[in-house]
Design brief:
Oligomer: heterodimer
Largest sheet of chain A: 6 strands, antiparallel
Largest sheet of chain B: 2 strands, antiparallel
Number of strands of chain A: 10
Helix content of chain B: 55-70%
Strand order of the largest sheet of chain A: 2-1-5-6-7-8
Structural class of chain B: mainly alpha
Order of helices and strands of chain B: HHHHHHHHEEH
Helix content of chain A: 25-40%
Radius of gyration of chain B: 20 Å
């Protein structure tokens, strides 16, 4: 080694290191750190995916059992009444050939997703899949609740959640979020039960079929005919609130579950 | 033996990183709304601090001065990311609540402060013990603040109801202030006061007032 050996003693009194040594030390540290980091990410990935799925399933169950009157219904009838099906988004028709569990676990059902042009992509998701999984809850033979997976972008990054609609495909029964990166105390309030409760009973579309649901800054005036489409956003989290509204609007619109909801509204057999 | 024990215990009360050095305050405000998140944050920081001080001390004689801070930060950031990954794998729900604050341990002045201030000049054993002691000191303050905030703010401790709240048919009206970040400021301020009343030597000398700033009538 041409470089002088580092002596003992406290920092600052040792010999100067040459540039080669400096670069060498930097590379060695980076190499070791990179190994540690990749190792931990690769080894722990299966546990994390498992956790994510468990929590996602737990949220669906939580959402379902929080719906008024539904908890008792499930307790009485068992989980068997909660169906999971794959739906082809463009037509709104169920696709029995596609395994919905595969879709839930992030699969694409053997069909490529299609890119969305920016003007039709208010939720910022980039690509829309051909098939999507929906949960259907039947009560006394008729469709009681439809649960749709929804996703989009908030202030801090991607937001994923579930939207529960009544059997008419138009009345919101509930909303919940399974994954987001919003600011704790502000945007992260989308997780709070209080805020989620504001969605309950709201309507998605007007009689003409146009998507009307949106977030507003002030509490909606209950006397206004529009209040049934309006949810008060989270103060201090305008972009998160808008992001959530846009993702709901997208997923109930023509490029999302719109065709399915139209069929449900027409009373077609789901 | 005795001196290494002192290295471990000194930062817990006498030189507590939060109450004496006022380091690592931001996370102390953010994650102490409940005791369980405060404990997990304290444990995560202790693990990172112990290991980073140990590693930094291990390579302290090989690291050129010009890049020492970058090297230290790289080591700390790696350890923080590994801890974050571990929490996501084995403490999923709590890690969701801690969200970005585990990642922000990287910027906790306490970790870099001990790494550069102590570990660069001391042996591996002493540095790891110093990191462990400082971590425990930090965790202790977080646990105290977290326990008070959860108890007064929600009437529970580790999720167990202790003070029956009005909502649940009891008598206790939760102090909503305790759920807001400023309450952690007040509590930490209170702790600093208590510690410095007991250990008067920790009280800082008043800063000398510049001549020009003195009121003219003071004489």
């Amino acid at each position: 080694m041409a470089e002088p050996m580092a002596g003992g003693g406290p920092i600052g009194v040792e010999a100067e290191f040459g540039p080669l040594r400096t670069v060498g030390v930097a590379l060695a540290v980076c190499g070791v750190c990179a190994l540690l980091l990749t190792g931990s990410v690769v080894l722990l990935r299966p546990y994390q995916i498992q956790n994510q799925q468990d929590s996602s399933e737990a949220r669906v169950h939580e959402l379902v059992s929080d719906l008024p009157g539904v908890g008792a219904l499930i307790a009485e009838a068992g989980e068997a009444q909660l169906d999971l099906r794959a739906v082809e988004l463009a037509t709104g028709v169920f696709a029995p050939s596609v395994d919905p569990m595969d879709l839930l676990e992030g699969g694409d059902g053997g069909a490529e997703s299609t890119p969305l042009p920016a003007e039709r992509d208010p939720a910022g998701i980039g690509r829309v899949p051909r098939y999507a999984p929906v949960h259907l809850l039947y009560r006394a033979g008729s469709l009681h609740t439809v649960i749709l997976p929804v996703s989009g972008r908030g202030y801090g990054g991607a937001i994923r959640g579930y939207l529960a609609l009544a059997g008419d495909g138009d009345t919101v029964r509930g909303i919940t979020f399974v994954d987001h990166r919003e600011t704790p105390g502000l945007g992260a309030e989308i997780e709070s039960a209080d805020w989620q409760a504001r969605w309950r009973g709201k309507r998605l579309r007007d009689a003409g079929g146009a998507v009307r649901i949106r977030t507003v800054e002030l509490a909606p005036d209950p006397n206004s005919p529009d209040s049934v489409y309006e949810i008060q956003g989270i103060s201090g989290a305008t972009r998160t609130s808008r992001g959530v509204a846009e993702l709901v609007r997208f997923w109930v619109g023509p490029d999302g579950f719109g065709p399915l909801l139209t069929r449900l509204r027409a009373g077609e057999d789901a | 033996m005795f001196s290494s024990l002192r290295t471990l215990t000194r930062p817990i009360v006498d030189e507590n990183p939060i109450t004496l050095q006022i380091l690592g305050i931001c996370s102390a405000l953010a994650v102490t709304r409940r005791l369980d998140t405060a404990l997990l944050m304290g444990a995560s920081l202790t693990a990172v601090l112990t290991l980073s001080s140990g590693f930094i001390s291990l390579i302290r004689r090989q690291v050129p001065r010009s890049i020492r801070l970058i090297v230290q930060i790289t080591i700390i950031a790696t350890l923080v990311s590994v801890v974050d990954q571990l929490l996501r794998a084995f403490a999923w729900e709590l890690s969701r609540q801690l969200s970005i604050f585990v990642g922000l341990i990287v910027t906790n002045c306490l970790v870099l402060g001990r790494g550069d201030g102590f570990a660069m000049n001391h042996g591996v054993r002493a540095s790891a013990l110093d990191g462990l002691g400082n971590g425990i000191g930090y965790a202790l303050v977080l646990a105290i603040v977290g326990a008070i905030r959860e108890l007064l703010g929600a009437g529970t401790l580790l999720g167990q109801p202790l003070l029956p709240t009005r909502d649940a048919g009891g008598w206790y009206e939760p102090a909503a202030l305790m759920l807001l970040p400023p309450s952690a400021f007040f509590l930490i301020g209170g702790l600093v006061w208590v510690v410095r009343s007991a250990r008067v030597e920790q009280v800082e000398e008043a800063e000398p007032v510049p001549e020009a700033a003195r009121p003219v009538t003071s004489a």
